[in-house]
Amino acid sequence: MPPPGADFLIVGVCGMKKTLDALKSRGCDVDGALGRMLGDADFMLACVRMALDDADFGKLGEALEQGDAGQAFERAHTLKGVMANTGLVPLYDSLIKIVEPLRAGHSENLGGEYARLMRLRDEMRDITGKNGEVR
Amino acid sequence: MDRDRLTVLIVEDQLINRQILCRILRDEYDVVEAVNGEAAMETLRSGSEVSAILLDIVMPVMDGYAVLREIKDSPYASIPVIVMTGETDIAAEQKALDLGAWDFVPKPYQPSVLLLRLKNVIVRSQFYLISEMKYAYEHDTLTDLYNRNSFFSRTRKMLEDDPDERYALVRLDVNKFHVFNSYWGEEEGNRLLRYIADSIRTDAKQLDECTYARINADAFCMCERYDEAVINSQAETFRQRLADYNKDYLIEPCVGVYIIEDPKQNIVTMLELATLAAKECKSRYMTYIQYYHPEMSDKVLQEQNIVNDMHNALEDEQFVVYLQPKYNLKTERPYGAEALIRWQHPEKGFLSPGLFIPVFERNGFIGKVDYYMWEHVCALLRKWLDEGLDPAPISVNMSRVNLYNPNLVELLTGLVKKYRLPARLLNLELTESAYMENPEVMEKMIRRLQAAGFTIFMDDFGSGYSSLNTLKNIPVDVLKIDMAFLAGNAAMGRNECILAAVIRMAGWLEIPVVMEGVETQRQVEFLKSVGCGYVQGYYYAKPMPVADYEALVRGVEQTPAETVSENHEVMARTIWSSGEQINLLFNSIKIPAAIFEVGDDGFNALRVNESYNRLFGYGDTEDDNLDKAYGRHMPPESAALAEDAFRRAAESRSEAECEYDIVLGDGSTRRAHMDIQYWGANGNMKIVFAMLLGTDNQALEACRDD
Fold first, then answer.
1. DSSP labels for B607-645?
2. Which positions in chain A touch B86 (Cβ < 8 Å)?
3. For residue A91, what pLDDT is reported?
């Protein structure tokens, strides 16, 4: 007989793997992120959730709307680093397309890419569920 | 925190990134987090012992570049910084490196790479710290040269590695550096020291093998292969560089060289010997380089022995009083003496004052020795008085140490009181050079001593730089001049002329003169002819034990030389006064008039009036070539007639007259009648007053208009 709570545990573990596989299938560098976090999947997932909830996504949109290239660059640049560390490659690639024009001081015509970024974020949020505490 | 674990400061505004880094680092390091640059600096300032910093660049409030800038010139500059960058921008990397970043790690983090790079920079920084400490341990902080300790160890190694070559230790310092420092200030002094250090570095580059360092204060040292020509040339270059340093202040070097005979000798000892040689420069004028020779050590040893023995010598009364009599030159009989110290050492025998007096003067012991001598002389005088004798005064010497003793007057009055002596019996000899150090203080001291009844001698008059000024301001009672004054000048008779003038001048001031160091009859005859009062020297008597002096003066009537000349006061006032009334009186005489002094070797005009000047065509009543001018206007036979008349007036102490031809300013010859009146004497010079008239007793016409 499995110990009490084991069903939930098994379900939890099975759920974790499913999430990670889903992220992988969407192009995320799950193995890289896990390696970065010393194989701690729970920790990794918690970081992913936190990254997807980062307030800089909203602030980037505001800055683009206001045409503030400087602010937008800083937000995008920061987000890019976080996406890289958490293995969220699709968002990382989208952010590169936003960061480079902003680095050159151009904030126009980035609305489309920003919208795509936000759709990707929502997709990832759907895959990972709610964010939680890391420690 | 675990004491054995090092601490890493993570500076990153993104929580996720901080958490990931913490996770990566936590197995090996303790972590401190900062959310931006400002928080990071606060953490450092709080004293956290951080071994490395992981630094993000783009952060709010204070970014990574600002942190790098702030750390660079701070006490935290030695902490290694790894910059975490998501960029592959070369410019950004270069900027970070320029600002002092040690390494980069890219985002996304690679844990193994990050940990390795962290470990590398920490190890490198520890080596750096150690090397910094080592540098500080080996180097002088002011000049960046090696310091004393590293000089010794490096020199030892150099000598061991090169045993077949001969080396020399060259020690350099600045003569009277402390004076430069006091005058220009410490900052300037430090600037000079750095200048010297640069000079030494430059010289060292020219040499194959050498070590060099700043030893302490202004002392520097080099150890190099011995080549006398090279060393002398270096010393000369050094001297020139110092001379060029400050145009308003001459800075001179002292260079002491010790040629190393035994390379195994202790380097500290070698430096001491080079230092001894350098010290010789200080005591020799115009000498800036000296090579050590063993006599220098003997001298030091000798001095040390003197110092070791001096206290016992005083207690055991090994110092004895010798007396050198002064002689009244006229009577050729002794009148008093100068007390001189001798040291009868129980083992070494008789020690010359030349050996120990300079040592005592340097170490201040002379003060006690002075008092010892004064007391012994007072005891002697008391003994003679108790024996019913009428002793002449004995003079004692006064060192600088006591001259500036504020209790000097009390000390001396206390002594004469203790021995119940009149102060006039204890004469005090002070050197002129001591006056010059602080004339105001000296003047006050001397006046107090004179008020207490002491007679003050100025010793070594003429040896100082401003003897006349000293004489003008300091009220001495007796002058002592050394016969060595007459030595050395090539011009025949020049020194004798100056000495005669000095003695006559002293006569006008009613100051007796004692000539010291008189050794020959010729000197004695000369001094008699110029009216010197006293003589002290080997010609008459050497310094002698007290018993011999007592035997010498027993039964001898001791009389002082005459110091006051006839009619002196009035004459002196008239002749030497520049006051208006005297001038008016003298110049109101419409007849050409002059005052002459007549001696065995001729006559000199001391003063003439305006009428005299107009007659002979001179411009100034105080022209000091008048005697020659007078002679120029008088044919030789006329000069002889005039001189004869002067002598007659002088010898008879009354009047005389003569007639002779004079040559006026326009070249014409006139017959003149001179009336001469004896006036008084100054020493052995007679003073006469003369007036010139035409042979018909009418005024002689002036040769030119006023």
1. EE-HHHHHHHT-S-TT-TTHHHHHHHTS-HHHHHHHHHH
2. 77, 80-81, 84
3. 96
Asked if B301 contacts B267 with a C-beta cutoff of 8 angstroms, the reply is no
Q: Is B111 on the interface with A (CB under 8 A)?
A: yes
Q: What is the mean pLDDT of residues B578-597?
A: 74
Domain spanning B568-694: CATH 3.40.50.880? no
- Classify domain B148-292 at the CATH topology level: Alpha-Beta Plaits (3.30.70)
Mark yes or no for CB contact B58/A78 under 8 Å. yes
pLDDT at B692 over 90: no
Q: How far is B43 from chain A (nearest CA, A)?
A: 23
Given a contact cutoff of 8 angstroms between Cβ atoms, the answer to whether A37 and A46 are in contact is: no
Count the domains in chain A: 1
Residue A63 lies in a domain: yes
Which CATH superfamily hosts domain B305-553? EAL domain (3.20.20.450)
Q: Strands B52-56 and B81-85, how do they pair?
A: parallel
Q: Which of A35, A51, A81 sits opposite B111 (nearest CB)?
A: A35
How many percent of chain B have pLDDT more than 90? 45
DSSP H stretches of helix in B90-227: 90-98, 111-138, 148-161, 177-184, 186-205
Q: What is the DSSP string of B576-604?
A: H---HHHHHHHHH--S-EEEEEEETTEEE
Given an 8 Å threshold on Cβ–Cβ distance, is A81 in contact with B107? Answer: yes
B348 near A CB under 8 A: no
The residue of B10, B12, B19, B114 whose CB has the most chain A CBs within 10 angstroms, and thus the best one to mutate to test that interface, is: B19
pLDDT reported for residue B600:
79
Reported as a single tens digit per residue, the pLDDT across B43-77 is: 999 988 899 999 999 888 999 999 999 999 888 98
- State the average pLDDT over residues B643-668: 84
B120 CA: distance to closest CA in chain A (Å): 20
Interface test with B, best of A57, A85, A86, A128 (most B CBs within 10 A): A85
Q: What are the b/e assignments for B101-126, b being 16+ CB within 10 Å?
A: bbbbbbbbbbbeebbebbeebbeebe
User: Between B13, B16, B56, which is nearest A50 by CB?
Assistant: B16
**Is pLDDT at B624 greater than 70 in this prediction?**
no
Whole-complex ipTM: 0.77
Query: pLDDT digits over B20-34, tens only?
Result: 999 999 989 999 999
| Chain B residues within 8 A of A87 when measuring between CB atoms | 108
CB contact under 8 A, B17 and A82: yes
- A81 with B86: Cβ contact below 8 A: yes
CB distance A96 to A79 below 8 Å: no
Percent of chain A residues past pLDDT 70, beyond the cut: 85
Give the model's confidence band at B574: pLDDT under 50 very low, under 70 low, under 90 confident, else very high.
low
CATH fold, domain B7-137, is Rossmann fold (3.40.50)
